[in-house]
Specification:
117 residues
Length: 117
């Protein structure tokens, strides 16, 4: 069973918005923190906690904190925060675009089936 079209579009937009804001904030904060591993671990843990706390409240906030967790974990492992963030953003936008295309196709097929005799 698939979600209603409007709900799927809203979730896709919330995911994109939350990821975009998360990239901007997490990359900026990681840039200030630098190589301070204890600071990054604290940010990682705080983001993970907040991610779970807002999961059922606001999907955009959830996506923002998921993105922060990804960026901080990659930074802890030595990756560049900006590169990790931009990769996350591109992958999210591609995923949302694919989902919206598939949703549009299934809606078109569903309408065509309903209208055919």
């Amino acid at each position: 069973m698939r979600p209603p079209t409007h709900q799927a579009v809203v979730v896709g937009l919330q995911r994109s918005l939350g990821t975009g804001v998360g990239v901007i904030l997490a990359v900026a904060v990681a840039g200030v923190i630098g190589q301070n591993t204890p600071g990054l671990v604290i940010l990682f843990l705080a983001s993970a906690f907040l991610m779970m706390a807002v999961r059922e409240v606001n999907y955009a906030l959830f996506a923002m904190f998921v993105t922060a967790v990804v960026v901080y974990s990659q930074r802890i492992l030595g990756a560049d925060a900006a590169e990790s963030g931009s990769d996350r953003l591109v992958e999210t936008i591609l995923g949302v675009a694919i989902a919206l295309v598939v949703l549009g196709l299934t809606e078109s097929l569903s309408r065509a089936r309903r209208s055919s005799p």
